[in-house]
What we know:
Blueprint: H1 8-16, H2 28-38, E1 44-51, E2 57-63, E3 72-76, H3 84-99, H4 104-112, E4 114-118, H5 123-128, H6 162-173, E5 176-183, E6 186-191, H7 210-217, H8 221-237, E7 245-248, H9 249-252, H10 259-267, E8 270-277, H11 289-308, E9 311-319, E10 322-323, E11 327-332, E12 348-349, E13 355-359, E14 363-371, E15 374-385, E16 391-394
Parallel strand pairs: 3-4, 3-5, 5-8, 6-7, 9-16
Antiparallel strand pairs: 1-2, 2-4, 6-8, 9-10, 9-13, 9-15, 11-12, 11-14, 14-15
Helix pairs in contact: 1-11, 3-11, 8-11
Amino acid sequence: MKKYRLLILLQLILxxxxxxxxxxxxxxxxxxxxxxxxxxYENLTSFxxxxxxxxxxxxxxxxxxxxxxxxxxxxIGGIHGNERASTFFLVNYIxxxxxxxxxxxxxxxxxxxxxxxxPIANPDGFDRLRRNNSNNVDLNRNFSWAWxxxxxxxxxxxxxxxxxxxxxxxxxxxxxxxxxAFHTGQKCISFLWDYIGKEESKGSPATYxxxxxxxNYLPEYPFxxxxxxNYESDVDEDSLFDEFYATLGYDWYPVFGSMQxxxxxxxxxxxxxxxxSNIQNSIVTGKxxxxxxxxxxxxxxxxxxxxxxxxxxxxxxxxxxxPIEARVLPxxxxxxxxxxxVEFETFSFSDKDGYLDIVLEEGEYNLLIxxxxxxxxxxxxxxxxxxxxxxxxxx
Length: 395
């Protein structure tokens, strides 16, 4: 038995002191009411991003020290309405961060990142204990990357549902560098891709060898997979059984039109899907304690993953002294040249104020900056842990 496992029951008892009794959060309105009370803490704010198909509020919460530019992370729960435990985990994690703000790791996270929480992405499904939304559309099949109308649950076209459109608009309004989507029904962390190929080609991963896939479609595979492996190790360390595993999304099962692929394929945002429990709805199944087990097993792993997300390129890009919105392709110095393209390049965008955050392994990178039809090469920029400052790049 691993050393941490002897402490699990103690962790659960301590967790009870700062966790809501989630059986009382039986509706999206009750969840938002609970979290809105928590906005008495000066660092937590809420804002409405949209209304659902039936007019329910879709609220986002931001935990931030101040308005100083820093990396933005987004955590999503409840896109499948019957997976309520994903929502309760985020509620518990927000509580944990607020109550433990003096903890060294928590303090560093809040000092160096803005944390956004979308605890119920599908309030109509949440309130009715349905996976899909009120139009019976699976919102995690309604995004435009490699979308296909296999059946009516994918929607008539991408983003034709209020809830998926709301996520699209939230992402496009904020320069997120890391997104984590929480689900239940399995115990694993999955990463890119869910369905591989250029958006227009929709190629199947099965047509590629593992080597071809990694080389052509996931240039940062060693770093991305290591983050997933570390999350798996942290969860297993804090669990009674070694049940949790890391997997490529398509190795688990292929998905058309997923959030995960759209985040990365369209916006270059590193992201993971984290399935935190076999139990979908702990209230209905009578397993309220499962929420506490989930929190005990995952909160340390999550904090460590978020801390890792602070490592990367942190730059402010200007031209003629003015900030610009540009597309940026990073290549590890010495790996290959910009004239040797692969099928899918790692990329990201600077925001309207010129700030760029890309989660990457520490090291030296060359950048290809694309702006107004021109390309600019910038050499030898260091990937590093973020700490209050951005590297200024004038092109």
